[in-house]
Amino acid sequence: MQITENHLRVINIIFGLSIDHASRTLSKTLKTGAKIEMVRASVIDISKITEQMNENPREVSGAFVSLEGDVPLKLLFLIPLQGVFRLTDLFMRKPLGTTTEFNEFTESVVQEVGNILASSISNVMVSDFGVKTSLSSPTVRNDFAGTIFSMFVMEEAMITDDLLLIETRFEVSKTELECCLFLLPRISSLEATIGKIEVCK
Amino acid sequence: MPINVANSNVVTVGVGDYKIVRAPKLLKTLLGSCIGVALYDSTTKIGGLLHIMLPKRENNATQKASKYADSGISVMIDHMVNNAGACRASLTAKVFGGACMFLVGNPLFDIGRRNEDEVRRVLQEEDIRILAHRTGGNKGYQILFDTNTGKITCGIFGEAPEEY
Amino acid sequence: MKRVLVVDDACVVRMIIKGVLESNGFQIAGEAKNGREALSKYMELKPDAVTMDIIMPEADGIQGLKDILGFDKHAKVIMVSAIDQRESLMEAIRAGASDYIVKPFEDERIVTALKRVLGES
Q1: Which fold has domain A5-197?
Q2: Rg of the Cα trace of chain A?
Q3: Cβ contact B14–A47 (<8 Å)
C-alpha cells in the first residue's frame, strides 16, 4: 500500500505516545531515569536500512516480541552484549559492576525488558486507541547486530521491499547503555489498523 | 568475534542487495539465514557480493531481483561482466551463510538450507565453480571480501574469524 | 509459614519475587515457567498461594489459572503481569483470580495482596 504523509502523521502520534509510556514504565522498573524517544517513523528500503546496521559489527543481545490483533507489529529491543551486565545490575538493584558473566539470569533480564516495553506499548494502544492486541512471549538471541536486525525484518521483507520502521533513541541515566528499540508495523495491515483507530477518516 | 575494519575502502552490502567493486576495495556484509554469494574475477580483480534473502522469486515480480537466489545471481553476473568489465569465463564463487536462525514451527525455519540449495543449483547452471564455502549452523556470519586477493575472512558469532 | 508457588517465564522475575516474599515471612514452595508447569507443580507441592505471570510460552497464565482452579477450586492465584488492560483483567477476574498486580510493582503491593488473600492482613 502507498503510505501517505497523513498515515505517517497518525503513526507518529500513536507510537510517540506508546513509546513515552514505555519510557516511564522502564524508568519505574529500573528505578533510574530511562528516556526512550521516538526518532522517526519512516518508509525505508530494506537494503538501505540493513546496510546501515551492517556497517557496525557489534555483538548484541536482542529480544523479539510480536504483537498480533488490530495493530500487528514486531518489536526488537537491542543491547550490546557488554551492556547486558549493567542492565542486569540495574534490574536487580545491585551496584553497577556486580554482574560479570552471561547466564540464564542476564538473558532473562533482556527477555523481561522486552516484555515490559512491548506490554507498555500494547497497553497504550488498547487504552488510548481502543484496539485489540495480543503479545507473544519474548524470545532472546545473542548475535551480531546486523544478523539480529535481518531476522527481525525477514518476514516483512518477504512481502515488500520497503519497511515502515519506527526508530528510537534510548538513554538510561548514569550509564552508558546504548540500547535501541525498533518497531515494525505490518504494512499490509496498516489501512485496517488506521481504520480501526478511526482518526484518519 | 567481530572482524574490526576501520577502512574507507570497505563497502557494505545490505539485505537483498549487491555491490560490485574493483581492487583495492573490500566488500562486507552480515548474514544469518541469508546467503552471501561472492563472485570474483582474478584477472581484473573485480569482485561482487550478493546478499540473497530467499531462494525463489516466484510471483513477487515487483520486488527487487537481488533478494532472490534464482534471479539475483544472474543480475549480478550481468552487471559484473557488462558494466564493470569482469571476464565471464574467469568468475569463481565463494558461498557463506544459510544458518538456521528461526525456531521449529516458524515458516522460515529451514530457509537457510533452501537458500543454499538454490544458490548451488544456480551457480552450477551458470557454470561457476564454488572455490570455498562455509554454511549452516545457527549463528550469524560476518564476511569481509578482499578484492586484492579474492580471499574472504569469515567470522561466525562466538568464533575466531577464518580465511577462505 | 505460608508457602507460595512463583510462576513466570523470566527467571529474573521469579528471583525478584522470591526475594521479596522470603524477606516478608513467606516460604517459596516452588517455581514454574509456564501455565502447564504451574499446574503440575501446584498438584505436587500444594502451595497456599500462587503468583502467576500471564504472557508465557506454551500455556499462558490465564490457562494456568483455569487449570489450577479446575484442580482446586479454593486455590489462591494472584496474577502478576505487565499487561494493564481491561480485557485481560476481566478475563482473570472471570476465571477466578484472587488479585491482579501490574508490573513493575512496589514490593509492598505483592506482600499486601498475598496477606489479604491468605487472610493474614
Answers
A1: Chemotaxis protein chec (3.40.1550)
A2: 16
A3: yes
Q: What is the model's pTM?
A: 0.90
| DSSP code of residue C56 | -
Determine the structural domain holding residue C35 and report its residue range.
3-99
Q: State whether residue C16 sits within 8 Å of chain A by CB.
A: yes
Residues of A in Cβ contact (< 8 Å) with B156: none
User: Chain A contact for C86, CB < 8 A?
Assistant: yes
Interface check for B59 against chain A (CB to CB < 8 A): the answer is no
Cell triple for residue A94? 545491585
Closest CB from A109, A119, A132 relative to C82: A119
Which residues in A lie closer than 8 A to residue B111 (C-beta atoms)? 154
ipTM given for this complex: 0.90
Residues of A within an 8 Å Cβ radius of B: 46-55, 57-59, 139, 141-148, 150-151, 153-155, 157-161
| CATH number of the domain bearing residue C81 | 3.40.50.2300
Q: Which domains does chain B have, with CATH numbers?
A: 10-163 (3.30.1330.200)
In a domain, C115, yes or no: no
Asked if A90 and A116 touch (Cβ cutoff 8 Å), the reply is no
CA C108, C109, C113, C116 dihedral sign is: positive
Alpha-carbon span B111 to C28, nearest angstrom: 44
In tens, the pLDDT along B112-129 reads 999 999 999 999 999 999
Closest partner CB to A59 (pick from B2, B17, B29): B2
* pLDDT above 90 for A179: no
Sheet holding B10-12, edge to edge: B10-12, B26-31, B141-146, B152-156, B162-163
CB contact under 8 A, A123 and C57: no
Q: How many domains does chain C have?
A: 1
Half-sphere exposure of A140 (CA within 13 A, CB side): 23
Chain A residue closest in CA terms to B106 = A155
Whether the Cβ atoms of residue B2 and residue B140 lie closer than 8 Å to each other:
no
Split at pLDDT 50, 70, 90, the class of B54 is very high
Instruction: Note the pLDDT of residue C78.
Output: 97
